[in-house]
Specification:
Radius of gyration: 30 Å
Distance between the termini: 79 Å
Structural class: alpha+beta
Oligomer: single chain
Order of helices and strands: EHEEHHEEHEEEHEE
Number of helices: 5
Largest sheet: 5 strands, antiparallel
Length: 265
């Protein structure tokens, strides 16, 4: 087997045993992180396989093999180099004492990559070092010591919690009385598309729903153009991430027909 075929993970725990779950999570992390890079290099239908486990430190060789043929090994040192460089990027991103999250950073690691990198470092969180390298590219290696692993564990936990929080759309409903509502777009059916402006709440058009058929027919189906009127209404406003998404009209109080035409300024 050529050197190009091999990725090596060496875990040195100063002759102390490794927790089985932590080692398992570490190996699975290698699989997913390596697979991600292989996919980005347009490789498909492959598997990450353990080729050899050596005595002494926990030293494991991996190969990228074709899924259909257990004997066929895919040789591409560029994948291994990209994989190690990506590990270095994630390592440098999180190994900071004054770690801060920049929400405008479009190159920040995904939640999945972050969690897998955390799992990669678990076996040495209390003692030891991890070395990821390839014999074919001796200059491209990553060494992680246990003190760095502790810093990374703290920062990745904080990072994932904040990323997960950003993914959750916080929703709330607030009621507003006697609001001036100007329709900008209406539909006569029950489908989405009716929108209105309520300047007291938000400076953009928002989807409108009706609390009951009587309100809807009074506004939409009467013999008048709702786009030429200002309606005084009580509304329930659904907010998502602090922005109004839906106005639900729960009471129609009054209506004032505009003297201007539809296209008048």
């Amino acid at each position: 087997m050529k050197k190009d075929d091999i990725l090596t993970l060496k875990i040195d725990t100063n002759e102390k045993p490794i927790d089985i779950l932590e080692l398992t999570e570490c190996l699975i992390a290698i699989k997913y992180l390596y697979t991600d890079i292989a996919n980005k290099n347009n490789y498909s239908n492959f598997e990450i396989k353990i080729n050899e486990v050596r005595k002494g430190s926990f030293e494991i060789d991996f190969v990228l093999g074709a899924a259909a043929n257990i004997l066929q090994i895919i040789s591409n040192i560029n994948i291994t180099i990209d994989f190690i460089r990506n590990l270095k990027f994630v390592y440098n991103f999180f190994n900071k004492k004054d770690f801060k999250i920049d929400k405008n950073d479009t190159d920040s690691p995904s939640i999945e990559t972050t969690q897998n990198f955390t799992n990669l470092t678990k076996p040495i969180i209390n003692y030891g070092t991890i070395n990821v390298y390839s014999p074919a590219a001796p200059d491209e290696n990553l060494i992680i010591k246990n003190e760095a692993a502790k810093t990374i564990a703290k920062n990745t936990k904080y990072y994932i919690e904040n990323k997960e929080k950003d993914k959750i759309e916080t929703s709330r409903i607030e009621s507003y009385l006697n609001q001036s509502l100007i329709f900008k777009q209406t539909r006569t059916d029950n489908k989405k598309g009716t929108k209105a402006l309520c300047k007291n709440i938000y400076n953009k058009e928002v989807e409108v729903k009706f609390g009951n058929d009587f309100i809807r027919k009074s506004i939409i189906e009467e013999d008048k153009n709702p786009l030429l009127a200002t309606y005084i209404v009580d509304i329930d406003v659904e907010f998502k991430n602090k922005k109004p998404k839906v106005y639900t009209i729960v009471a129609l109080k009054d209506m004032e027909i505009s003297e201007k035409g539809l296209f008048d300024e």
